[in-house]
UniProtKB/TrEMBL annotation, chains A, B, C, D:
It comes from the Bacteria. InterPro entries: Gfo/Idh/MocA-like_OxRdtase_N (IPR000683), Gfo/Idh/MocA_oxidrdct_glycsds (IPR050463), GFO_IDH_MocA-like_dom (IPR055170). It comes from Roseobacter insulae. Pfam families: GFO_IDH_MocA, GFO_IDH_MocA_C3. This is Gfo/Idh/MocA family oxidoreductase. Residues 5-130 form the Gfo/Idh/MocA-like oxidoreductase N-terminal domain. PANTHER family: BCDNA.GH03377 (PTHR43818).
């Protein structure tokens, strides 16, 4: 068993989640590589020190370059806002370090392309933080489709809906300015990535985005509150997606429905331990959607619990990501989703934003 | 209490439903006008006689003109395939009779326009059979929105999905040929009408329709299996709709989700006695979607049962329609939805078909 | 096709439901015998006349003996409070008339025994109004168990819970006095009958009943608000039941769960068109409870609607009962559940009340 | 921040869960005391070494006395089968060490009593592993009841049902022999503890236990497969419970329903992030059960995720237990549930087993 020095950039929502994941992943997955929490970086020395102490890192800094440069830091996790992703990643690759970057990959398609180039040039392990598709249920959904269990897919509906900005009195923040931080930049990537993981590439689309509440305490809102999209997958299926941070009542509405010629699948992250599967077989009278509770017979469940139906949660998704990142480092093999996969998501979003501007269908290949 | 002579055209799926409804409506709603089952018409004398005996009509015919001409028939219900709706309705109005017509109103927008003109000229009661929006739950949803209980609506998602043609081995029938009989002609009208009942008119849309299984035992399929649509309501909300007869696993997927600035509503006809309501009030910790079971405190429930949660079913919707039709006749006042409302649905569908053809946004006002 | 003259006693909650059912049953089920609404009886001449006009009866009376004696009344439906069931039934049988009696059969076990004796002596058709077990879903559940689809049943849990007396400010009525009108007398019969229909006879039990709110506006409450029971079926399964009229939030909580050695079934009347079935077969990863929506492939569904998932409701159960009653009259064959079945339910309740009094297990055979 | 040396006994299902929890708890909850994984014990040297390496302990042993005696081990977690709990706990208390013991506390009531005595004499922190009641949802349920939000509780129904022994071909193991390892010994403690946490002490009960499959590959089954219970709480509520390891289809059926005079609560661990709450207030038309998704406004949720509805899982419950255990050590204050609480559960089970034997009601106070 070998150790690897980890540096995390950001100690907020996701920085903490990754710190916990790095603490737990070894015991959960019996990984060959074991993380050593080397350094954490935040925007002020005080915050950095607070996070260090809380999460159990050896050292802290408020300068991301110090972290990236530190020789004891062998692999980094980027959990700062999107506009910093590119610079950090490029610097880390330049120093030959493995990089795990939170979604969205770059703050723009151009940033993402540059990041992919940097990753490829460095030949270092690189991954993007699409955690929702890592649940045992969604991994199982991918398997079912890949195995042809629902036949040819004819229809897809996906959404990523939350309501943290539903109330117009919720103050402005970094999330309410900058295209990369709006709903299309911040939430849509999860479901677009999920859609492509489940069905394959998107060929063309038409989209519409909108800012519903354009002023909030603390400032104007300059990015989108919600966006809708209609698309055609390269594999032939039609589909619709919806993304919103103002979907009143929805807390974790990462949800999809997939119809195929021989079956269908339904999933809602708000009940993340259940996958609904319909098969067009057996006597008509006993057909229906089966509510499958995840358990040891599903991907990446057993390490968390030997009992089926006992359930995994949000934090466990991040632990699964950590296992994948360590595996990529250990084996030197790419583990999905790489920066390239993250960039493909940005292409779809770029196409959607262009479509919303000029109100016409767009081929993703043009972006 | 007065009687009124009823003639029904068609004795199939819907002909029977209306015959039962006319038998039961008086006792259920204590209507002033009481239906007398005067004559039924089907495509052959044998079928017509069989339906007569089964449903309890006085007389039968295989010639719709005989029924329409008969002086004892004072009001008619059209439950024949869509391509016959116009001729029958025009003849009936010309004879000064009240007409209830199954959805879709006409087989085309032109037919529907002609039917509205005939209805207006005759000044006779006229209604269209959009039954799903008549459930106590959906009527209550309309009330909630109209009363501002969920604030300004920002988003609508609707679907009408079934799977009776999901299996490519299901034979061709009158439903698999003719634009009016495809999914857009046959199923979409219910949800488009529902969407407009809940949110008001649709301003513009973009749509895409498709035939997935183009050959079936018994013939080629010449109309659409499913269709998707993205739209903007005149009131400002964005929305998406989906219509399918090949939605594997969906049996009665008339379903909608509506987000507003102060609350949200969710409904699925497969559990037609429940409406889900979220309100952005009270302490955060106790917020969530409330599953409201319909009961005597909701519209048109109590006549069916004094106990809440005891539930109404499909046939009860048709009884509610019958009550409305009798009321329109008795009072001489229009009862929603009239032929005009049915025609408005056809306009939206015409816009959608045009949009699908030339792949661009369409304003409904242009149709 | 022949007619039969129907007399209904009571025009309240259930009197109306039966009147509507008798109006609709012919058209729904294409019955050979067709009901003619001959006479209705209520407690005052005014009410009787009001019901007559509303429901479409030929004549009205406030004296049940007049109805029972009337030669044009060939079959009667008893929908008056329980304490009148016995006298009316005995008089009707004495005059050679078929009798459908609302649940519970008699106001006491002694009454029920006398009613069974009268029925047998008269050789007239006799049925009891256990409507909930008539839904397509519960009929299908019975089939599944009878066919061994879930193996040997090891466990049963049933409840009949409502909350119409949950609020202590709800006034007293005929339901709050008299043992036959309490929860054990009024609600428990439905589920006890259901349990026996699904699993067979109950061998022994222990029960406890209680009055929670002993005073209400308008009077003291002298019967039970809720009751719980633990039992052993003759077939070997263990089980628990619960009955309540104060189960806050429950509107139509006729619900059961049945575990067998090869599968399980779950049902809740609040979603009466769904039956949940688990089978211990196929790969572990795809097992789960299947939510089966009722449709034409299930018992007694198709006459109400050709489309699966479109749903039946409370009133439809009463129409199914009417069909059964007409069939019993027409064929001269007993149709389940007869008075004898109703009496068996009263035996279980008598055992439960005795058990509650002396706090010990009781064999039903002793009652 | 101080460290504390942890020793875990057992490296199976629960041993691993506690090892992971001890790795993660510091970062999740920012605890003052930080666990140092000092030693792990299993039944063979090979297993012990395997667990050591996998979970990241410093040392391993196959002799629990070595672990308990080790001076660097300051607090221990007992995750071995029930029959070892007492000896280990007594030895640890004798050496002045804090003890966390998996449920059930002792293998018998006598064992549990001895363990409580040892704990009290030692004045060391002592806790029992009732993890299910630690979910944010169930903690919130406890708060709601304690705050009177559902009024006076009138009725409780609880179950702990799984199906890991539903198939008679599943081989015998340590769980199929010995009263402490049957369903009443192994599963019932969770729900009995939960019931008492939610409603307070149980006054009297009547129960029945049964072995359904008395032979399995590998040996006879000498303990119970399922058990049912009817009870009365000291606070006045009636209730029923059911426990089963053969409840076909149930994977994690820790579920309860609680009716009160002003509201009701429903919960099912298979959807552990949702609590259903009904309140008897507001207009009748908008009442219903609200599905509350847990989030930062509920107990012990936010440390796992800032987003509501994102969900916690099984492993997170064990992390919450670890936090509580560390807090008890750090503060020297008892944290619920202590050994005394665990012993109270054993009393109820002892009463239930006695009741099953002589088939009569038992007062828990007699045990
Ligand atoms: N996968 C998922 O489920 C989620 C992903 N994210 C992504 O994670 C990233 C971080 O988002 P959150 O954790 O929500 O943000 P946050 O606002 O909670 O935390 C941001 C962190 O970045 C640090 N930071 C900001 N500027 C810095 C600078 N110049 N130098 C050093 N540190 C700096 C802050 O100190 C803070 O610790 C974003 O890219 C976001 O899109 C966010 C939430 C959920
Ligand atoms: N509101 C709803 O839920 C539904 C509405 N519909 C609508 O109801 C109408 C009828 O559809 P279904 O009942 O499903 O069709 P169906 O095929 O079951 O019955 C059609 C009936 O029309 C009669 N008919 C056909 N050609 C005729 C002719 N030339 N002369 C006299 N009678 C003729 C047939 O004998 C048959 O009785 C359609 O407009 C359809 O769109 C259909 C199903 C559900
Ligand atoms: N199967 C089911 O789902 C239900 C069955 N029931 C049963 O139906 C029966 C009637 O109950 P509800 O309809 O709820 O009662 P209700 O109070 O609504 O109606 C009772 C009817 O009996 C009539 N009546 C009372 N005393 C009379 C007398 N001396 N002479 C003539 N008529 C008299 C009243 O005028 C009234 O029309 C009861 O046995 C009850 O247990 C009641 C509700 C539901
Ligand atoms: N709270 C919960 O959700 C659960 C609690 N439990 C409880 O946890 C305890 C352990 O159960 P599991 O982990 O399921 O058992 P297991 O069979 O998976 O593991 C038992 C462990 O004890 C060790 N062991 C057995 N005999 C030993 C000996 N003489 N000396 C040293 N080590 C020995 C074994 O090596 C093994 O590592 C039991 O008390 C059980 O009731 C079990 C499962 C779930």
């Amino acid at each position: 068993m070998a150790e690897i020095g980890i540096g995390i950039l950001g100690g907020g929502y996701m920085g903490k989640a990754h710190a916990v994941a790095m603490s737990a992943v070894g015991a959960v997955f019996n990984t060959k590589l074991r993380p050593r929490l080397e350094m954490i970086c935040a925007s002020t020395p005080q915050n950095a020190e607070r996070y260090r102490a809380a999460f159990g890192f050896a050292r802290a800094t408020d300068d991301w370059r110090i972290l990236v440069d530190d020789p004891a830091v062998e692999a980094i996790v980027i959990a700062t806002p999107q506009n910093m992703h590119r610079d950090i990643a490029e610097a880390a690759f330049a120093r030959g370090k493995a990089v795990f970057c939170e979604k969205p990959l770059g703050a723009s398609l151009a940033d993402s392309r540059a990041m992919v180039a940097a990753a490829e040039q460095s030949k270092q392990p690189n991954m993007v933080g699409f955690n929702y598709i890592r649940t045992p249920a969604s991994q199982y959904a991918r398997q079912l489709i890949a195995d042809g269990e629902i036949g040819d897919v004819t229809w897809f509906r996906g959404e990523h809906t939350e309501d943290f900005y539903a109330d117009p009195k919720t103050p402005a923040s970094w999330r309410t300015a900058g295209e990369a931080n709006g709903t299309m930049g911040d939430l849509a990537p999860h479901m677009i990535n999920g859609a492509m993981a489940l069905l394959g590439p998107i060929d063309r689309l038409i989209a519409e985005v909108e800012t519903v509440h354009d002023a909030r305490p603390g400032g104007a809102v300059t990015n989108d509150d919600h966006g809708q999209m209609m698309c055609r997958f390269a594999g032939g299926a039609m589909g619709q997606m919806y993304f919103s941070r103002i979907a009143t009542g929805r807390k974790m509405g990462y949800a999809y429905e997939i119809s195929g010629t021989r079956g269908s699948i339904r999933f809602d992250q708000e009940d993340q331990n259940a996958l609904w599967l319909y098969r067009m077989d057996g006597p008509e009278a006993s057909r229906g959607f089966t509510k499958i509770l995840t358990g040891p017979s599903h991907p990446d469940y057993e390490p968390f619990c030997q009992g089926p139906g006992h359930g995994t949660g949000y934090q466990d998704q991040i632990i699964i990501e950590a296992r994948d990142f360590l595996r990529a480092i250990e084996t030197g093999q790419d583990v999905w989703p790489t920066f390239h996969d993250g960039m493909e998501v940005n292409r779809v979003i770029a196409a959607a934003m262009a479509s919303s501007r000029d109100k016409s269908w767009k081929h993703v290949s043009e972006f």
